[in-house]
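In response to reviewer comment 3 from the previous cycle, which asked for concrete evidence that the modeling workflow produces usable outputs, we include below a single protein chain processed end to end. The sequence was submitted unchanged, and the resulting structure tokens are shown without manual editing.
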Amino acid sequence: MGCFTFEELLAAHGGDDLPQPIRHHVLDEACEVCARRLELVRRIVGLLPTLALEPVPARVRAAALAVPEQARRRLPLVLEAVLAAPGMVLALRSGASGTRRQLYRHGAWELDLALDEKGSLLGEVAGEDPAVPSGECTLYGERGLDHARLDPDACFRFEKVQPGPHVLVIESDEAVLVVRDLEIPA
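The workflow returned the following structure tokens.
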């Protein structure tokens, strides 16, 4: 039988009685390595109650919990609907089909939405950074909420969305995108 790790011996130490496999290995097979490890475990377990831990000073705790100044803060951005120019038809970048399409924008952030024939809401996010954003999408409606994740192409899909007013929130590492007045037609 092989030797026991320090962690296994520490986990098995619960007083004077050792589990049979460890007792057999240490005593009957006379493993010196495990016998030394077991003695160290016994000494550590005996020493722990005598150690008095000092409380963490308040300013050290505050510094540890503070958000670093250089940390990125996600900005909540409210996306507004963009009307198509006369003679132009809105379409999803990926070319996915959908009967009703709408483009939303705030600064460099864009969100293409489409509703397909089965009542699924399709979306594609394009951001400031050419890299594809990743994140979680939440659709809040009168009858509850639904979740979806952005796929590797920054697309998402909500199946069988109920008609009525909704709020769509897309949380990525860079920003929180919000579409406040999303009306799903019947």
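Residues 32-47 form the longest helix (16 residues). We consider this sufficient to address the reviewer's concern, and the full set will be provided in the supplementary archive.
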